[in-house]
Design brief:
This protein has about 150 residues and is of the alpha+beta class. The protein has a single domain, classed as Nucleoside Triphosphate Pyrophosphohydrolase (Alpha-Beta Complex). It is built from 3 helices and 7 strands; from the N terminus they run ββββαβββαα. Strands 4-1-6-5 form a 4-stranded mixed beta sheet, sandwiched between helices. Strands 3-2-7 form a 3-stranded antiparallel beta sheet. A hairpin with a 6-residue loop joins strand 2 and strand 3. Helix 2 runs antiparallel to helix 3. The relative contact order is 0.27.
Length: about 150
């Protein structure tokens, strides 16, 4: 698959202790809000993919031990507008879910050309803003798990 993206990716939901979620707006698709996502490179371990994507997309450095691996993956159809990035005939992606809790107010540095804006939103609001069902569901799962484990 040289020159093409691998159809294996990570989704990393960044949040603070109060469950405010970081969402990024795609530069090429205004109005498309999402968490950190990105494709695995070669045989890179998925946790390393997650750390690299967090650093590249937000400027936030994290160690693999800081990430929570949900041991959850979602298979979904790749949107037609992004299929040219993949080898001919590739139509689906497998996304592996992680989360990262950061201190409230952690500075974010966007990658020019990839994202145009960011915002921190309460988890229910953030879930409603996501264009991706996998991202929405992950945020809802995080919020519900944290809410119920606190009671």
């Amino acid at each position: 698959m040289s020159g093409h993206k691998r159809p294996v990716s990570v989704l990393v939901v960044l949040h603070d202790a109060a469950l405010n979620i970081l969402l990024l707006e795609r530069a090429a698709q205004p109005g498309f809000w999402q968490s950190v996502t990105g494709s695995q490179e070669q045989d890179e371990p998925l946790v390393e993919t997650a750390c690299r994507e967090v650093r590249e997309e937000t400027g936030i450095a994290c160690a693999p031990a800081e990430l929570v691996d949900w041991h959850l993956s979602n298979r979904f159809e790749i949107f037609p507008i992004w299929r040219a990035r993949y080898a001919p005939g590739v139509t689906h992606n497998v996304e592996h879910v992680f989360s990262l809790c950061v201190p409230a107010g952690t500075p974010v540095r966007l990658t020019p050309g990839e994202h145009r804006a960011y915002r921190w939103l309460p988890w229910r609001t953030a879930a409603a803003e996501c264009f991706s069902w996998t991202n929405r569901d992950a945020i809802l799962m995080l919020g519900l798990e944290k809410t119920y484990s606190a009671t």
